[in-house]
TrEMBL record:
Residues 2-51 form the BFD-like [2Fe-2S]-binding domain. The lineage of its organism: Bacteria, Pseudomonadati, Pseudomonadota, Alphaproteobacteria, Rhodospirillales. It comes from Lacibacterium aquatile. The keyword Iron-sulfur applies. InterPro entries: BFD-associated_ferredoxin, BFD-like_2Fe2S-bd_dom, BFD-like_2Fe2S-bd_dom_sf. Keywords: 2Fe-2S, Electron transport, Iron, Iron-sulfur, Metal-binding, Transport. This is Bacterioferritin-associated ferredoxin. PANTHER family: BACTERIOFERRITIN-ASSOCIATED FERREDOXIN. Belongs to the Bfd family.
Length: 66
């Protein structure tokens, strides 16, 4: 599935980057792909994948955080 339409990054690309051990953040995912987020709609999904892989709980946005 394509996660980032602007840069054509798939969930497989992200998972592959995460499993090689050199990626530990959203910024690392984009750096590894040789790009940067453009519209930003994919960032929450990428962040979730990174947190899931690294065993970190996802922070839920609350109205106070918005």
């Amino acid at each position: 599935m394509i996660v980032c339409l602007c840069n054509a990054i798939s969930d497989r690309d992200i998972r592959r980057s995460l499993t090689d051990g050199t990626v530990a953040s959203v910024a690392d995912v984009y750096a590894k792909a040789g790009c940067a987020p453009r519209c930003g709609r994919c960032v929450p999904m990428v962040r979730g994948m990174v947190h899931e892989h690294c065993g970190r709980p996802q922070q839920r946005r609350t109205p106070e955080m918005a």
